[in-house]
Structure formats: C-alpha cells, structure tokens
Amino acid sequence: MSFEITGAYGERAAEYTEKLGSMTSVHPADLQLITGWAERLDGPVIDAGCGTGHWTGHLATRGVEVRGVDLVPSFIDHARRAYPGVRFELGDIGVLPEPAGTVAGVLAWYSLIHHEPDTLRNALAEFARVLRPGGELLLGFFEGPVLEQFEHAITAAYRWPVDLLSDELHAANFDIIETHTRAGLEHRPHGAILARVRAEGKSDPR
C-alpha cells in the first residue's frame, strides 16, 4: 500500500472504524469461511492488512495464534485498545519480518484491493515466501467480469475476475483450493479465493 493510500485511510479512520470496524458488519458466510479456515490451520496466522483488527481479535478468541499487521497507525492504535492482549504491529504487508516458510496461514481480506497488478504480484510473492510448504492464503476482494479500476470510498480500488486473480496466484506458486463469489443489491460483488502454496520442486498441476 502506498503512503498516499495510507494517508487517505488515516484521514477517515474514525469513519471507517465506525462503519466497518467490528464483527457486526461481517457477512455470515464470510464469518463461517474465515473462522473455519483459520481454526483448522496448525500454526501461526498473519492477518495481513488487518485494518481495525476485528478479524484478528475474533480469531484470537477462537484460539488461533494470530497477529495483525497494518500500515495505518490509527488502525493499529485502535486495534490495540479494542483487543488487549492480541498482537498487532505497524508494518507493510509487502515486507513481512517472518523468516521464509514459517507461517501456516495468511488472511488478506480486502487488503489488496488498492494494489495495481504489479504491486499485487509483489505482495503475493511475499505471502508465498513466509508461508510454509502447504500453507494457505485466504483472499477477499471485489469481484467483477473484467479487471478494472473503480472509485472506492477511500481511494481507487480494483475489481478482479476470479479466473484472472487465480492466474496471478498460480504464477506466485499457489494452487487454488476453492473460490467463492457473492452478489447482492446492497453490496458490491464479492469474491474469495483459498489457495495453498506449492511445496518446493512441485510444478503447477494445470
């Protein structure tokens, strides 16, 4: 995430936190998907781009070894106050401090929506680096029929077709486990992709 985007979120942090910064704003299907995924992982999980920390806090209450990372200081300050005892760190999800192959799961729930394709590839490569062989990545994103930029409430964001984003994941050494889409009158079309990093030496099965 660029510093311009970080600043835009910082300027509207209070508004964002009020509207979207708690589990009450979460869709039931997403709650089931993310909770079930994280609970079956055996090892540490990174909530990459954790925002206000509600997913990190929720997973911690479920016994998941999780830490949240975000580049917006006001989000991290809020998360630390709202979820004492849960680990939150100010940092860039594109440059994580974890050694290679040490993480069981990465949650990137709408944290890559502002990334242009080239910078998205860099983030995916970093997730693949920190994940252990067989580790899993769960992405949430705005879904659409073509890759296109649109005006988001904070700053410009991207819609991705599931197939095209899946191709980016394959190129970053991931295999797709499952995909989900959802559309409705009250929300923009939503997509989710669960992917597993390939073990070293294994080829793309496609």
How would you explain this protein's 3D organization?
The chain has one domain (3-197): 3-Layer(aba) Sandwich (Rossmann fold). Helices cover 34% and strands 29% of the residues. It has helices spanning 3-11, 13-20, 28-39, 54-61, 73-82, 117-130, 162-171, and strands at residues 45-48, 66-70, 87-90, 103-109, 131-143, 148-151, 156-160, 174-182, 190-197. Helix 5 (73-82) links the parallel strand 2 and strand 3 (87-90). The chain starts with a helix and ends in a 9-residue tail after the last strand.
Concise overview:
The chain is an alpha/beta fold and 206 residues long. The chain has helices at residues 3-11, 13-20, 28-39, 54-61, 73-82, 117-130, 162-171; strands at 45-48, 66-70, 87-90, 103-109, 131-143, 148-151, 156-160, 174-182, 190-197. The protein has one domain (3-197): Vaccinia Virus protein VP39 (Rossmann fold, 3-Layer(aba) Sandwich), CATH 3.40.50.
Could you outline the blueprint of secondary structure elements for this entry?
Blueprint: H1 3-11, H2 13-20, H3 28-39, E1 45-48, H4 54-61, E2 66-70, H5 73-82, E3 87-90, E4 103-109, H6 117-130, E5 131-143, E6 148-151, E7 156-160, H7 162-171, E8 174-182, E9 190-197
Parallel strand pairs: 1-2, 1-4, 2-3, 4-5, 5-7
Antiparallel strand pairs: 5-9, 6-7, 8-9
